[in-house]
Design a protein that fits this description.
This protein has helices at 47-67, 71-76, 80-111, 116-133, 137-145, 148-154, 158-161, 164-171, 180-189, 194-207, 219-225, 231-247, 249-270, 277-283, 287-300, 305-315, 340-354, 356-367, 404-423, 435-438, 440-456, 460-477, 479-495, 502-517, 536-539, 545-563, 568-577, 584-588, 600-618, and strands at residues 7-10, 210-212, 215-217, 321-322, 371-372, 383-386, 395-397, 521-522. By secondary structure, it is mainly α. It has a 4-stranded mixed beta sheet, with helices on both faces. β2 and β3 form a beta hairpin. The longest helix is centred in the first third of the chain and has 32 residues, at 80-111.
């Protein structure tokens, strides 16, 4: 069964309201939409949930009965291609049904992770899916044991040839597969292993409260204060985060140590040599390509982040900015909050200017209530677009608070959403896109929105503010994410030699942050624990380099668009529509781009450097 995870858990900001147990409840705030999950199920106690769970159980048992132990012999026999194609089709249908159930449970839980009834529902669904899918484990393992020549012959059958990309992709996992009983043990133990620790992280981070002034705030409103115009509020928020994180450091250190060890055990048994090799395999990207990206970005820190933060400090008439002022709004930036309808129009207008088809898909997220925008108590922090499953449609979660960065987050997540809608046509097995390209549509959506806003801005000062905001976003997307990746590598590598104390994890964090932020950011006491709230470290180890991959790729892609717009939108949408059916190198060929060229990354980074140069010239 293919794994399903929410795409691009990106940081953002918002306000919070109590969540109803009926996930399809009408929005109580007309200004900010809440999603309607009824396209999946009408509620956690809906009879359709029970019926689909029972159907899933029956389908999985029947599948095992019909196919286990027979794949090699029947595939090699006459008509083997047609027979195996029917097996894959049934497997895909089960995957789609399981995806619907798991997506619904995950989305309801993301909407309110502290409601006991919802938490129980989420845990129960996860357990039932794990138990049911035990009956399917044999399928991919047996399929990968079939001789290459036999599989190739079977794929000459048109019905099976349709699934060629999935089968060839699957066979790349072959060297890392274990004996069936061990795979089953790993699978079943995941419920009491990494899945349980992920859930503990989610519930802990959602329950944290930060005392700012006389208020007890959840994490999203507190993070939002780091972008407040008031220097006193930014400082108070930064110090409140430091206090709360310090009080909870043992819990987060335990979660981090346990999950790093869990991954080390799995990697060791499967034969992965490097701590990030399993992620690279999952992304279908060569380690050398990622290493080249990381090396290029780290070498560029002085001409990117160090240079920009020195410029920003000067705008604030300081030599250095305290760490809580890193994302402070610029003194000359517009102060008005951006209302939701205005944000919607900004993004859709930018999308429509590029492609009416792209805008039409994005518009459905608004008209059909596929977006959950307000902040609520217990709601997951940040933002994401979840693909759910091809028989349904994606959903976007964000925490909208009217800041310019929130508009860019909306553009980002709708980029994911458009990509997921287009890729869904490939079916449950071939719709998922490797992370190397998963961030392409999202970052491209941001770029379209930014360029549109830039052309519509008449004021030189506001143009400067827009440009600086984009540079900050790019630094957060490229420099910060590669620093995160460097931090993860250090933690996972050191964990092989024993547990790391919270203090030691903090030391690694400070070292990496100091290198990436540069001398113009004054890292004050308390910042050593700011690694604790980053969800990617817990949910998707080593995911973060995909952001930098996507941003640098989009910079190059957008340059192609600006130089030759005719036919570009059609080629771009065709690339998104391919989903997981093609390797990233094949998808980039029509644009004349090759990410395996060591100089490729320097081109994307130069775009950021030139924007900083433009800001320096503005004074």
């Amino acid at each position: 069964m293919t794994s399903r995870s929410s795409s691009a858990l990106r940081k953002s900001t918002t306000t919070r309201k109590p969540a109803s147990k009926k996930a399809a409840a009408r929005p109580r705030d007309a200004k900010l939409p809440e999603w309607n999950l009824a396209d999946l199920y009408s509620g956690i106690d809906a009879p359709e949930v029970t019926a689909d769970l029972e159907r899933l159980d029956g389908d999985c048992v029947a599948f095992e009965t019909d196919y286990k132990g027979r794949l090699a012999e029947r595939t090699a026999a006459a008509g083997g291609g047609t027979w195996l194609a029917e097996a894959v089709r049934r497997y895909e249908a089960i995957d789609d049904l399981a995806g619907r159930l798991s997506s619904y449970a995950g989305l309801v839980h993301a909407g309110d992770s502290v409601d006991p009834a919802i938490s129980k529902f989420y845990g129960d669904i996860s357990e039932r899916l794990t138990n049911a899918s035990v009956h399917l484990l044999f399928f991919t393992l047996e399929l990968n044991r079939i001789d290459d020549a036999v599989v190739e012959q079977a794929m000459q059958t048109p019905e099976l040839a349709h699934y060629r990309p999935w089968i060839e992709d699957l066979r790349k996992d072959k060297p890392y597969q274990l004996e069936d009983r061990i795979e089953q043990l790993f699978h079943e133990k995941s419920q009491s292993g990494y899945t349980a620790w992920n859930r503990l992280f989610d519930q802990t981070i959602s329950a944290l409260r930060f005392k700012v002034g006389g208020n007890e705030l959840a994490i999203e409103p507190t993070l939002s204060l780091l972008q407040d115009r008031s220097a006193a509020k930014r400082k108070a928020a930064g110090q409140a985060m430091a206090r709360t994180f310090k009080a909870n450091e043992r819990t987060f250190a335990l979660i981090t140590n346990t999950l790093a060890k869990d991954k080390e055990i799995s990697d060791r048994w499967r034969g992965f040599k490097d701590v990030a090799d399993s992620r690279h395999l999952n992304n279908r990207v060569e380690r050398e390509v990622v290493d080249a990206l990381v090396a290029s970005v780290r070498a560029a820190y002085p001409r990117l982040s160090h240079r920009y933060y020195r410029l920003k400090a000067a705008w604030f008439k300081k030599r250095k900015l305290p760490h809580w002022d890193r994302n402070a709004p610029l003194p000359f930036a517009a102060t008005a909050s951006i209302a939701w309808p205005a944000a919607r129009d900004m993004v859709l207008t930018a999308y429509r200017g590029f492609s009416p088809e792209m805008a039409g898909i994005a518009e459905r997220f608004f008209t059909d209530r596929w977006i959950d925008a307000p902040v609520r108590p217990g709601k997951a922090p940040g933002a994401f677009s979840h693909p759910t499953t091809p028989s349904a449609h994606p959903y976007v979660l964000m925490n909208y608070q009217g800041k310019p960065r929130d508009v860019m987050t909306l553009a980002h997540e709708l980029g994911h959403g458009v990509h997921q809608v287009l890729a869904a046509r490939n079916g449950a097995l071939m719709a998922p896109t490797p992370l190397t390209l998963a961030e392409t549509a999202s970052v491209f959506g941001e770029m379209l929105t930014f360029k549109r806003l830039l052309t519509e801005t008449g004021s030189a000062r506001q143009r400067q503010a827009l440009l600086a905001g984009k540079v900050e976003d790019m630094i957060n997307t490229v420099v910060r994410q590669i620093a995160f990746y460097t931090f993860e590598r250090a933690v996972h590598t050191e964990r092989k030699n024993g547990e790391l104390t919270a203090e030691r994890v903090g030391e690694i964090w400070l070292s990496v942050q100091g290198e990436s932020l540069g001398p113009a950011i004054d890292i004050r006491p308390g910042y050593e624990n700011f690694w604790m709230y980053i969800p990617h470290f817990i949910h998707s180890p080593f995911y973060v380099y995909a952001y930098a991959f996507g941003d640098c790729l989009v910079n190059s892609l957008y340059a192609v668009y600006e130089n030759a717009q005719d036919g570009f939108a059609e080629r771009y949408l065709a690339m998104l529509s391919a989903g997981g059916t093609k390797h990233y190198s094949e998808l980039l060929k029509p644009f004349g781009l090759d990410a395996r060229d060591p100089e490729f990354w320097d081109g994307g980074l130069s775009v950021i450097a030139s924007m900083i140069g433009e800001l320096e010239a503005m004074g």
